[in-house]
Amino acid sequence: MIVTEETPLQRYIRAGQTTISNLLVHHYKQIGMSTAQLVLYLQFKSYQDRGTMNPDVRVIAKNLGTSENQVFNQLHQMMTNHLVEQGMRRLPDGKEDAIYDFSPLLNKLALLEDQATTTDHEEASQNSRQQVFATLENEFGRTLSSMELQIVNDWLDKDAYTPAMIKLALRQAVMNSAVNLQYMERILQSWAHQGLRSEHDINEHERQFESRRAGQTPTQGSQPRSAGPKIPIYKLGE
């Protein structure tokens, strides 16, 4: 039987792979890890992924080209920073074995991602709020008073009117030469009562209303209404 020598590529494939999230690669500094601790974690993960939950620290130190004391020092720092903890596992023979559990590291990373998502959402919401204020002030031709700012904030926070709803209500107010918050509030309340909250639904409702009104014929004896001047549709924010 002829035994062929294993090629370098075959040895590379047989060694397996260690996969980590890009979140860790990009944000390990933000959760309090040093580069040396990241590499140490990768060493432990490479063994734990293959079933060796408690790899020999001497082997890991050799892989890293460092001393066992240095490995233990790094592990101690990671424990202090709540990135790893020592746990116990029960072996098939009933004995218990100490292992290094890196779940705290992953939990910390997930929490960081949640915080980043929340921050992005809050920033987007704040930017949208400022755009609403700017649009109103542009149409009013003046700065909003503190009371007016509070009313608009209540629309957004308490009544859950969207910025799109407020801008559409402002458009209606402009078209009807009634540019004030009281008139806009009646419009917003009417839309909310009818379950109209998206820009599409509101525009469709207004289109149907105009179609019905245009289709009405004068009653007998009534005088036909003059067409009057055409009110331009303002594109808000410009």
Architecture overview:
This protein is mostly helical. 59% of the residues lie in helices and 5% in strands. It has helices at residues 8-14, 22-27, 35-48, 57-64, 68-80, 103-140, 146-157, 163-175, 181-193, 199-215; strands spanning 85-90, 96-101. A hairpin with a 5-residue loop joins β1 (85-90) and β2 (96-101). α8 crosses α9 (181-193). Residues 217-222 and 224-238 have low confidence and may be disordered.
Please give the alpha-carbon distance between the first and last residues: 83 Å
Globally, the shape reads elongated
**Major sheet:** 2 strands, antiparallel
* Poorly predicted sequence stretches spanning 5 or more consecutive residues: 217-222, 224-238
Number of helices: 10
Region (Disordered): 206-238
Domain DnaB/C C-terminal: 133-206
Biased composition (Polar residues): 214-225
Family: Belongs to the DnaB/DnaD family.
Summary, kept brief:
This protein has helices at residues 8-14, 22-27, 35-48, 57-64, 68-80, 103-140, 146-157, 163-175, 181-193, 199-215; strands at residues 85-90, 96-101. The protein is mainly alpha-helical and 238 residues long.
How do the strands and helices of this protein lay out in sequence?
Elements: H1 8-14, H2 22-27, H3 35-48, H4 57-64, H5 68-80, E1 85-90, E2 96-101, H6 103-140, H7 146-157, H8 163-175, H9 181-193, H10 199-215
Antiparallel strand pairs: 1-2
Helix pairs in contact: 4-5, 6-8, 8-9
Give descriptors for this structure.
10 helices, 2 strands, two-stranded antiparallel sheet, mainly alpha, 238 residues, 59% helix, 5% strand, disordered C terminus, elongated
